[in-house]
Amino acid sequence: MGNTRHRFENIRYSLFEKSRLLYVSTSKYEGDWQSILHSHPFSELFYVVKGNGLFVAEGKEFPVEKNDMVIINPLVEHTEKSWNTSPLEYIVLGIEGLSFSFEKIACTKEGVSMNTAYAPVYKYNMCNSNVYAYLNIMLEEISHKEANYEVVCQNILEVLLTCMLRNSHLTIIQDRQMILNRECAQIKNYLDSNYSENITLDTLAALTHLNKYYMAHAFTKYAGLSPIRYLIQKRIQEGKFLLESTSHSIAQISAMLGFSSQSYFAQAFKKATGKTPIQYRDEFSNIS
Predict the structure, then answer these.
(1) Helices 201-208 and 227-245, packing angle to 10 deg
(2) Residues 208-217 pLDDT 10s
(3) What are the structural domains of the chain?
(4) What's the whole-model pTM score?
């Protein structure tokens, strides 16, 4: 009788202790969806089961086909377009706690790499791997929902990621602080561009898909002041410019900045500068 035993020593039982599977979704194009750019504060794996189309990221696009895996880093705006003649079917995994690096990708012709404002997007074909088999086991577990099926799915995710790491051009980064900093940068950019709108912690929490108290704590650590204090500071900064460069009334400027009332604007402005808006304008006029 032949007998072969493979002995394992010094095993790391998990390479991805900080990562978590958030969801698994399946989609099939049937001519009834509109392609809309969107982003997430976590990574996604987009696996094409059938069909052909385009993947769009930050206004750039590349073709996708059967067995293509698209790796989407946190905060990258993306969507997909399907050809009517060959409708896309795909599976998407949402994964929290990691991002992907493709620093060596310039050395390879195996895939397509695309840089965006936040992070790169990468596509390569996995026809010679067991990815689809792993994904089907995941879907079967989710469908039956037997005891501890979530644990099984999380472990299958780790198998899938481990196999992906065998691509020597791919690095997985499990730095939660780095990912949080990206989310905080997204909040800062949003506040800088939309300071005149009615913005609350709930608004920002919905933008980042984070608990609002956790989000506020993370942003305070990132920026040195809370999101609402940053918003007020931005409004005061813009208020100074309007007081210096326009003849708009204080009430008009208050409304343009997004303050709920003229008195609230005056109170916040004096607290920040030591002067009322009228005093600030008069002093600037005397200097100039």
Answers:
(1) 110
(2) 777 788 888 8
(3) 20-173 (2.60.120.280), 177-287 (1.10.10.60)
(4) 0.63
